[in-house]
C-alpha cells in the first residue's frame, strides 16, 4: 500500500526551511534549510530522490504558504520535479495554517516550527489542500497588480497636487470638483500658480487642448483676482512636476490597460463582462481572486472567501453583532465594492435591489454591503452554469426563496420535545415561547404518534385513551 509523506516548507526571502512528517505527524526527516539558488534547488532534488529511493512505495505531498511571491521559485521547481518524482505540490492559505497552529497551543514560532505547522496542516485538513493546481492567471495577475499600483500612485499625487493648488492657484479647483481633467493638468504644467496664469496671453492659453476662448478668458480673469497665498518658484516647480508626473502615469495606465484587454482572452472574463457594471479590468480582478469556481462548493464559501458573509453572535437568548465579517484580504472586497457602486448607477436590476433595501430602513452602507453579496451570488451562478447575465433568473430565485420563507417551518432542534413554558428559562425566553405558542396552530395528533415517539434507540409510550 502506498504511503504518504508530508513535506512542509516555510519560505523566507532567499531561503526556505523543510521538514518531512509521516501520516502520524512523526518526524521522518528532521529540519533542514536550503537557499533559493540553483545549488539549493539541486540539493533539494537529491534529498527527495534519496528519500523516495529509501521508501520506494511512497508519495511525497509538499506544500508552501502563499507569501506574496517568495514561494514561486520553489513552487515552480517542485512542479517541474513531478515528472521524475512521486511528488504532489500545493499552495495553501497561511490563514488556515495559523489557526491550526493556534489550536495546538504552540506559543513559540520559529522558521523550523512554521515548516512543521505547514506539514501538520496538510495532515489534519487534507480536504482543504488542492494539489497540482496550475495558476493560469499568473502573468495577468502581475499586469493587473501593476495597473493597480500605478492607479494608487496617481491618486496619491492628485491629493498632493490638490492641497498645493489650494494655496497657489485655488480658482482652478472649481473645475476639478469631480476629477482632474486633462486640460487642467496641461494648464498647470505651463502655469502652475495664479501669478503666472494672470500674466499669460489669451492666445497661449487657448492653444492648450480642450480650452476654449471663453474658458481661457475666465481662467486669466480669475487668476488676476486670486486669493492665493503662495506664488514662490519652489511651489511652482513642485506643482509643475506633479502635473507632468500625473500625465505620465495616466498615459502608462491607459497603455497597460489596453495591453491587458488585448492579451486577456479568457472565456470567464468575457462571461462576466455581460453583467452591466463589470468591465474588463474588474472581470480580470474577480477571476484572479476566484481562479476557478470549482474551488467553492457553494456561494456561501465564495462569500466567506471575499469576507462579505454576515456574522453574528447567538448565545442563549441573545442575538448580537450582526454585520459583514470583513475577514481575509481587503483587496477582493475593495474590488467588489467598486463594482457594486458602479452597478447601483448603471444596472437597473441592482439599482432596484438597492432601493428595496433602503426602503426597509437599512443604512446606505449596509444596503451597499447587501448589494455586494447579491452581485457575488450572481457572479457565482454565471460561472457555475456558464451562463450570461440574466436578471430574470435571479428574480425567479428570489421569488422561490420568498415562498420558502413564508412557509411555516418547525424548529428542527426541538423535534424531540416541544417548547415548555413551565421550564426554568429566562424572561426573554419565556416571552418568546409564549408568543410562539400563540402563533402556532395546534393539530390533534394522529393515533400512531400517540402510541410511540422514537428518539434514537429509546422509545416513550403514551397511555391509551379511554
UniProtKB/TrEMBL annotation:
Tell me any Pfam family this protein matches.
DEDD_Tnp_IS110
Q: Which residues cross the membrane?
A: none
Q: What GO molecular functions are on record for this protein?
A: DNA binding; transposase activity
Question: Example GO biological process term?
Answer: DNA transposition
Q: According to the UniProt record, where is the region Disordered?
A: 425-466
Return the InterPro entries for the record.
Transp_IS110-like_N (IPR002525), Transpos_IS110 (IPR047650), Transposase_20 (IPR003346)
Question: Which residue ranges does the record assign to the Transposase IS116/IS110/IS902 C-terminal domain?
Answer: 270-354
The organism of origin for this protein: Ignavibacterium album (strain DSM 19864 / JCM 16511 / NBRC 101810 / Mat9-16)
Q: Which residues form the Transposase IS110-like N-terminal domain?
A: 7-168
Official protein name in the record:
Transposase
Amino acid at each position: 500500500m502506498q504511503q504518504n509523506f508530508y513535506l512542509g516548507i516555510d519560505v523566507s526571502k532567499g531561503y526556505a526551511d523543510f521538514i518531512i512528517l509521516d501520516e502520524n505527524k512523526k518526524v521522518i526527516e528532521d529540519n533542514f534549510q536550503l537557499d533559493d539558488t540553483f545549488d539549493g534547488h539541486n540539493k533539494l532534488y537529491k534529498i527527495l530522490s534519496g528519500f523516495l529511493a529509501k521508501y520506494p512505495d511512497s508519495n511525497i505531498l509538499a506544500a508552501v504558504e502563499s507569501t506574496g511571491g517568495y514561494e514561486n521559485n520553489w513552487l515552480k521547481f517542485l512542479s517541474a520535479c513531478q515528472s521524475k518524482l512521486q511528488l504532489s505540490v500545493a499552495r495553501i492559505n497561511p490563514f488556515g495554517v495559523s489557526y491550526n497552529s493556534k489550536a495546538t497551543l504552540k506559543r513559540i514560532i520559529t522558521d523550523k516550527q512554521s515548516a512543521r505547522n505547514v506539514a501538520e496542516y496538510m495532515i489534519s485538513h487534507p480536504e482543504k489542500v488542492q494539489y497540482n493546481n496550475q495558476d493560469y492567471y499568473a502573468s495577468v495577475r502581475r499586469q493587473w497588480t501593476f495597473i493597480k499600483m500605478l492607479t494608487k500612485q496617481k491618486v496619491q499625487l492628485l491629493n498632493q497636487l490638490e492641497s498645493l493648488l489650494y494655496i497657489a492657484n485655488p480658482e482652478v479647483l472649481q473645475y476639478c470638483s469631480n476629477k482632474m481633467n486633462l486640460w487642467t493638468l496641461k494648464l498647470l504644467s505651463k502655469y502652475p500658480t495664479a501669478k503666472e496664469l494672470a500674466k499669460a496671453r489669451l492666445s497661449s492659453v487657448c492653444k492648450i487642448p480642450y480650452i476654449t476662448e471663453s474658458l481661457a478668458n475666465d481662467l486669466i480673469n480669475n487668476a488676476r483676482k486670486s486669493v492665493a497665498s503662495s506664488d514662490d518658484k519652489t511651489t511652482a516647480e513642485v506643482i509643475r512636476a506633479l502635473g507632468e508626473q500625473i500625465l505620465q502615469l495616466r498615459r502608462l495606465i491607459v497603455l497597460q490597460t489596453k495591453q491587458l484587454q488585448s492579451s486577456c482572452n479568457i472565456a470567464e472574463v468575457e462571461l462576466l463582462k455581460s453583467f452591466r457594471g463589470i468591465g474588463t479590468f474588474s472581470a480580470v480582478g474577480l477571476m484572479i481572486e476566484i481562479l476557478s469556481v470549482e474551488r467553492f462548493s457553494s456561494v456561501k464559501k465564495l462569500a466567506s472567501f471575499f469576507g462579505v458573509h454576515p456574522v453574528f453572535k447567538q448565545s442563549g437568548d441573545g442575538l448580537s453583532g450582526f454585520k459583514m465579517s470583513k475577514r481575509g484580504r481587503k483587496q477582493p472586497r475593495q474590488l467588489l465594492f467598486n463594482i457594486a457602486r458602479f452597478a447601483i448607477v448603471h444596472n437597473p436590476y441592482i439599482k432596484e435591489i438597492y432601493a428595496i433595501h433602503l426602503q426597509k430602513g437599512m443604512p446606505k452602507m449596509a444596503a451597499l454591503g447587501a448589494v455586494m453579496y447579491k452581485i457575488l451570488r450572481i457572479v457565482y451562478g454565471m460561472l457555475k452554469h456558464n451562463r450570461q447575465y440574466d436578471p430574470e433568473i435571479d428574480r425567479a430565485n428570489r421569488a422561490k426563496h420568498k415562498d420558502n420563507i413564508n412557509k411555516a417551518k418547525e424548529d428542527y432542534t426541538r423535534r424531540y420535545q416541544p417548547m415548555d413554558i413551565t421550564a426554568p428559562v429566562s424572561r426573554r425566553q419565556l416571552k418568546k415561547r409564549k408568543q410562539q405558542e400563540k402563533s402556532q396552530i395546534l393539530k390533534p395528533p394522529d393515533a400512531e404518534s400517540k402510541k410511540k415517539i422514537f428518539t434514537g434507540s429509546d422509545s416513550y409510550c403514551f397511555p391509551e385513551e379511554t
